């Protein structure tokens, strides 16, 4: 015979089962996070008479409020997750003896995912002035199930969206990297010039970067070349450099004076970068007939120039400050000299000569100087520099974009 108590238990069981079935349907409807939180709040407040709800979750190593209902900002501000909640790893009834900062709440429900606590649900009764055990405690197990189902599902949704966003960013970076690599000439893209051999290296640190070099046929008898580096790394530096490349290519002609070109480029960088970034640049123009090299070094690392016959190594450092550092360049010097036979030039960005070891950055040209002074072709020199780069990349000592342009004047 079924007693009245049994009938009441059956009704309670059916009510809880219906709540869980409704919850499963809500989750399966693929709603937005805000809608799920709203349904969670309605379910607890209207069906289970919960007066206070505070949901705190951990995302990207930071605790944040996911939902606060019936809770004042003052109550929220008092709670320090690290000090007040981390000690709770199981459901805890705090109705009779709540900690000072958690007064007004009746239960603490840790939320676990893959054996790790990812959040907490704090619940409180509607009638705060009542003493004794809160009536919502009789529903606390059900609330725990509901909380874990909905909040953990929401956290999974958030992680999934983060992963999708990261994948989208990754694809955008890959596309940007392909585009940038097409803008940077490789050895096969460099035109042949009688009397000179050119070899290059380009290796961005983050897929895209702020390094840039170019080899430009100015006329049948003149070749222009440059190497540049934007302050900073990543997308912002790459965008500025792409814009800079387009401007430089449109202005760099056989007849333009390099001093005039530098002043125009400085104005353009100031317009584009808004004083937030600057560009260092080494730019040169070589006459294949007269063997006259004209150059300006705008704040860039001085390229190495080696005269093999004299066994003399020099630095090409005449120029000015970096582009975009000031509105107007205060002093500008141009280097001009006749290139002797059997000589080599190596221009590079600072990523090639800055090495990190034990959290300390060391700088030095010694390796490059020793390579360029060898009685070998520029092709062999660049191959050795590539090997040097590979060795240090395996040791994780390089931390910036790397570019180099080697020219042999035969």
CATH homologous superfamily annotation of the largest domain: PPM-type phosphatase domain
Shape: elongated
Order of helices and strands: HHEEHHEEEHEEEHHEEEEEEEEEHHE
Distance between the termini: 109 Å
CATH topology label of the largest domain: Phosphatase 2c, domain 1
Describe the fold and architecture:
Strand 1 and strand 2 form a beta hairpin. The strands form 4 sheets. Strands 7, 8, 9, 10, 13 and 14 form a 6-stranded mixed beta sheet that branches. Helix 2 packs antiparallel against helix 5. The chain has 410 residues and is an alpha+beta fold. The chain folds into 2 domains: 160 residues, Beta-Lactamase (2-Layer Sandwich); 226 residues, PPM-type phosphatase domain (Phosphatase 2c, domain 1). About 1% of the residues have low confidence. The chain is built from 9 helices and 18 strands.
Please describe the structure with a list of short key phrases separated by commas or semicolons:
Beta-Lactamase, alpha+beta, Phosphatase 2c, domain 1, elongated, 5-stranded antiparallel sheet, 6-stranded mixed sheet, 18 strands, 410 residues, 2 domains
Layout of helices and strands:
Layout: H1 4-28, H2 33-47, E1 50-59, E2 62-69, H3 73-78, H4 81-85, E3 92-93, E4 107-113, E5 116-125, H5 140-183, E6 196-203, E7 211-217, E8 222-230, H6 234-251, H7 258-273, E9 279-287, E10 292-298, E11 304-307, E12 312-315, E13 319-320, E14 335-338, E15 343-348, E16 354-357, E17 360-363, H8 366-372, H9 378-394, E18 402-409
Parallel strand pairs: 10-13
Antiparallel strand pairs: 1-2, 1-5, 3-4, 4-5, 6-18, 7-8, 8-9, 9-10, 10-14, 11-12, 11-15, 15-18, 16-17
